[in-house]
Structures are given as C-alpha cells and as structure tokens.
Amino acid sequence: MSVYQATTSAPVNIACIKYWGKRDTKLILPTNSSLSVTLDQDHLRSTTTSRADPSFEKDRLWLNGVEEEIKEGGRLATCIREMKRMRKELEDKDASQPKISSYAVHICSINNFPTAAGLASSAAGFAALVSSLAALYSLPASPSELSRIARQGSGSACRSLFGGYVAWNMGSKPDGSDSYAVEVAPREHWPDMHALICVVSDDKKGTSSTSGMQRTVETSPLLQHRIAHVVPARMEAISAAIRARDFDTFARLTMQDSNQFHAVALDTDPPIFYMNDVSRAIIALIVEYNRVSVANGGKLKAAYTYDAGPNAVIYAPKENLKEIIELIIHYFPQAEPFKDPFGLFGAAGVQGK
Ligand code: PMV
C-alpha cells in the first residue's frame, strides 16, 4: 500500500516595507506592496507534515500538538481546497497520477518559536502548510504560484515561499491573480546582511493583525497617505538599495517604514500600540549608535524594525553584530544571548532557499 506523506519547513520573514491593510479581506489582497527578508535560522521555522489517506474521514490539523478547527470557508480550508484543486488538475491531465485529491488530509505543524507574538508565526505556518501540500501532491508549481495560495492563508506568508529578499507585488486585478511574491535578490547576493532578533516579550499580541488592519483601513487618514504617496517610491528605492548592497539606504528606509507602520497603528481609532517601553528603548539605542557613527564620518550601522508586536529585529552588516550585541547586553543586562530561542534574543542569518 502506498503512503502519501510529505514534510517541509518554511522560515519566518520580516518586512522592511510593511504590509498593513487589505483591499479584499476574503482573497487577502493588500492595499500596498511590501518587501521582506526571509530569515535563515533553525529556531524560527514552521515544520509541517501532510498526509493523505483514504481512511481519513475529514481534513484535520494540529498546531504544536493541539488540534485546530478547520472552519468551513476559513483560511485553512481555502488553502487546503486550492491545493486539492491543483492536484485534481494534475490528475486530470496525467492519468498515471494516483487519484489522491479526493482523500482527506491530516496536517501536523510545529513552530519552534513563540506563536502570535509578532514573530510572523502565521507567515511561516501557512508557507509551510502550502509547501508541504505541494510536496505531498507533487505539484509542478513555482514558488510565485504557491505564494498566491499561501497569501490566502496569511498575507505575509506569501513572502516566506522564497529565501533572501522578497517583494509582494500588490497587483491590481480583483481576482488576485497578479498579487504574489517575487524574488528581489537571493540570500547569496548580500551574505553580509544579518538579523538579530530581540524577543522583548513572547506573550500573544493584544490586537491580531487581521482586526488591527481592518480598523486601520476604516479609520486612519495616514494610511491613505501612506498607500498613495509613500510606499510605491519606497518599494523602488529599497529594491535598488538591495541590488546595490547599499546598507545605508536600506537601513534608512527600513527604519522609516517601521516608524510609519507604528504611526499608522497609532492613527487608528481606537489606537493600537504594538511596541512597549523596551521596544522604544531599543530604538533609542540604535538611533544613538547610528548618530555616533555618522558624526564620526561613518554610515548607518544598524536598522531596527518592528512588526505587530514588541519584538525588535535589527538588521546589520555582520561586522557590526558583535558591537551591537555588546551594547544590548550593556543596556539590557538581563539579556541572554544565544541561550535558547525563547531567551531575550538570538541571532539569525538571512535565509537562502
Ligand atoms: O500576514 P499577517 O496578517 O500576519 O500581517 C503581517 C503584518 C506585518 O507583519 C505587521 C507586516 C508585514 O508585512 O509582515
């Protein structure tokens, strides 16, 4: 008897130009394009096993050992349905393919980092889910094609289908067919780039990105300005900076965009606060670190960015990492570098595919 099972894993990605706002909540079509770096660290991955079997009565999914409900019409159900549809197309084209698209699937997913703490757990989770089903079904789909499906699980998940530097082009078609991720540059293009994750808190975040985004879209005038007048130019400029390995420009844009995303959250009614005092103290530290460098005729040495949570991600060229870690330990003596992925912080490289 044949066993139909596949295991794959996908890493977290951290946006430099943030996605915040949906123009279509069902298809998950964004109000602006975004760009991220996929992290390459064993500690920040989702690993997913999918199995199809004729004896299974219904689709089921376990996240970190706890069964999650697959709600009809919900995001999990949509991703699974779309993957089965692609498998069915393959079976219809190629009669030698076993007819497994009609079997129910059981899916087990494990995150080795705090779930829903602003560390993009849903991005890695849905990317791993889609890629494990693609492997189970032997689909000849490209990462961009799969990203269109992962997008419907969690928007930012579409960018975790690629390693390195990844853009999610918002697209303009109402059916979402032109809203998918593309590679801007592979990880090897800029091996000097590193990311330091400072886990300020691994509590679950207060406002989910879904409800936060919806509130921002409905109430924030600043978001409208950002969408129309800020992000398009930033997407161009940061892509060019990545291609030119221009850290100074990359860092400036990354910090500006993190600031604007949190300003947009604050501009929401009622306001949303994702950062806390420790997050802001880390910003002050990086600002001062860069100021001293520039005052001495140097360039920017590090860039902070924060997603929908208090945890900092600091991008920096490798040569500055030791200094940055020493600074953080000095000002945050309770930090325990590299001890474990749930300690105050750990370092990560940038992921290749
Ligand atoms: O994909 P979601 O719904 O988890 O939204 C992610 C939003 C941010 O992480 C704040 C920004 C981004 O582009 O990843």
Task: Chart the SSEs and their pairings.
Layout: E1 4-11, E2 13-17, E3 22-24, E4 29-30, E5 34-40, E6 45-53, E7 60-63, E8 66-68, H1 75-93, E9 104-111, H2 121-136, H3 143-150, E10 165-169, E11 180-185, E12 193-198, H4 209-219, H5 221-243, H6 247-266, H7 277-295, E13 303-306, E14 312-317, H8 318-331, E15 345-350
Helix pairs in contact: 1-2, 2-3, 5-6
The structure holds (3R)-3-hydroxy-3-methyl-5-(phosphonooxy)pentanoic acid.
Give me some keywords for this one.
five-stranded mixed β-sheet; steroid metabolism; globular; EC 4.1.1.33; binds (3R)-3-hydroxy-3-methyl-5-(phosphonooxy)pentanoic acid; alpha+beta; eight-stranded antiparallel β-sheet; 2 domains; lipid biosynthesis; MVD-like_N
Give the strand content: 15-25%
Low-confidence segments, given as residue ranges, are: 338-353
**Biggest β-sheet strands, sense, barrel:** 8 strands, antiparallel
Instruction: Output the radius of gyration.
Output: 20 Å
- Specify the helix fraction band: 25-40%
Secondary structure tally: strands: 15
Query: Class by helix and strand content?
Result: alpha+beta
- Report the CATH C-level class of the largest domain: Alpha Beta
Order of helices and strands: EEEEEEEEHEHHEEEHHHHEEHE
The number of helical runs is 8
Counted up, domains total 2
CATH topology of the largest domain: Ribosomal Protein S5, domain 2
Mean pLDDT: 91
Tell me the quaternary state.
single chain
Could you tell me how far the N terminus lies from the C terminus, measured between alpha carbons in angstroms? 33 Å
Enzyme class: lyase
Protein name: Diphosphomevalonate decarboxylase
Organism: Wolfiporia cocos (strain MD-104) (Brown rot fungus)
Domain Diphosphomevalonate decarboxylase-like N-terminal: 10-181
